[in-house]
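Hi everyone,

Forwarding the result from last night's run.
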Amino acid sequence: MNNSGKIITALVIGAAVGAVLGVLFAPDKGSETRKKINEEGKKMSDAIKNKYNEMKEKMNAVKDDMEQQAEDFA
């Protein structure tokens, strides 16, 4: 993974952790806090899935490029 990918991943994780901590320390009722945590968990899950799909697409592109280069070389 290159540096920009690592930075983006760290930012996404940091934002998610910050959001969860902010919700936990907010002066809301327990039911409201659980609802917010659930919503943040879904957002974090979606962000992770999106990052995984991006990396998968990049890896497929690299694989296709390597296969093309191997065909050109042969």
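The chain has a mean pLDDT of 82.

Cheers,
N.
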